Amino acid sequence: MGLFLTHGQRTLMTLGIMLTLLSCDNDTTEPALADASSVNLATTSLGFTLTGAEGKTLYFFASDADGNSGCNSPGCLTNWVTYYADKATMKLGTGLDAADFGTITRADSRMQTTYKGWPLYYFKNDAKTGDVLGDKVGNVWFAAKPNYTVMLVNAQLKGNDGKNYVTGNTVSYAEGVGTTVYMTDANGRTLYGFASDKKNKNNYTKADFSNDATWPIFQLATIGDLPSSLKKSDFAVIKVFGKDQLTYKGWPLYYFGPDGTVRGANKGVSVPRPGIWPVINATTPEAP
C-alpha cells in the first residue's frame, strides 16, 4: 500500500527533487575556470607572456624573490588570485618546458604553481585574453614572461655581517628594517655594482679571473625581456678579458659568491662595508 502515491504526493516529490538540484547548483559560489590546468604563451602588447585559464595573463610579484609567496593578506589575495595546476595533469603550450614549473605550499596551506621559481598569479581586473592591466602595478607586479634578463625584487637587505639595511637610492645605506626594490637575475640571484668601477669599465676582475669566485661577473651576451619599468637603453654588454658582462647605466654587474644560488640572498651589501658593493635599481645614478 505504501508503494502507491496520490497525484498530490507525486507533485510534491517532483518539486522537492527540483529544489534539491537547484540548491546543489547554488552551492558553487565561483564558476570553474575553463582549462585551468593549461599554461600557454600568448602574444600581448608586452610581447610573449604566460597565460592560464581562459587565456588570462599570469604575473610575478617582486616580493617573491626567495620562491615563497609574499601575497598573503586578504587585500592582496583579493586583487591577485593565485594560480595552481597539478603538474601531473598540467598541459603546456609550445615553447614551454615542464622542468621550469614547480609547486609550493603557501603560508595558508594552499598550493601554488611556480615558473622558474616565481609563484604565479592572475590580476582581478584583467577581463579578457591579452589584458595586461596588472603589469607594473606598484612597480612590483610584472607580467610573467619566459625569458627575463633581469627581475626586480622587493626585499629586506641583510648583509654578510648579519645586520639589516635599508636604502632609498642604493648609494647610502643605514641599518634598519624595511624593504628595498633592487635588481636580480631571472632566477632571483642578487646583482651588485662596484663603487670603484667606471662607465662600462670593470676595475675589479683580474685578467686570470682569480678573484671571480668572490664577485663573479654577470655573464650575458644577449639582452632579452626586461621588467617594463626598466629601459632597455640603460643596459649594455661589455667585454671583460674575453667574457661578456652585462652593465646597467654603465655599471658592470656582479654576483656575490657567498650568496651562492640562494634566491633573494643579498649578503654582499655589507662587504667590506655598506656602499662599496651596492645593489642596483632604477634610482641608481649613471656610472661616472
How would you portray this structure in words?
The protein is mostly beta strands and 288 residues long. It folds into 2 domains: 38-143, no CATH class; 150-270, no CATH class. It has 2 helices and 17 strands. A hairpin with a 7-residue loop joins strand 12 (164-166) and strand 13. The longest helix is centred in the N-terminal third of the chain and has 20 residues, at 7-26. The protein is globular and about 50 Å long. 32% of the residues are buried.
Notable features of this structure?
288 residues, mainly beta, 4-stranded antiparallel β-sheet, 3-stranded mixed β-sheet, 2 helices, disordered N terminus
Mean pLDDT: 88
Helix percentage? under 10%
Give the spatial strand order of the biggest sheet.
13-12-11-14
In one word, what is the shape?
globular
Beta-strand share of residues: 25-35%
Kindly report how far apart the N and C termini lie.
101 Å
Q: What count of structural domains?
A: 2
Task: Please describe the biggest sheet, giving its number of strands, its sense, and whether it closes into a barrel.
Answer: 4 strands, antiparallel
Number of helices: 2
Radius of gyration, in angstroms, nearest whole number = 25 Å
Ranges with pLDDT <50 over ≥5 residues?
A: 1-35
Order of helices and strands: HEEEHEEEEEEEEEEEEEE
Tell how many strands the DSSP assignment holds: 17
Q: Determine the structural class based on helices, strands and strand pairing.
A: mainly beta
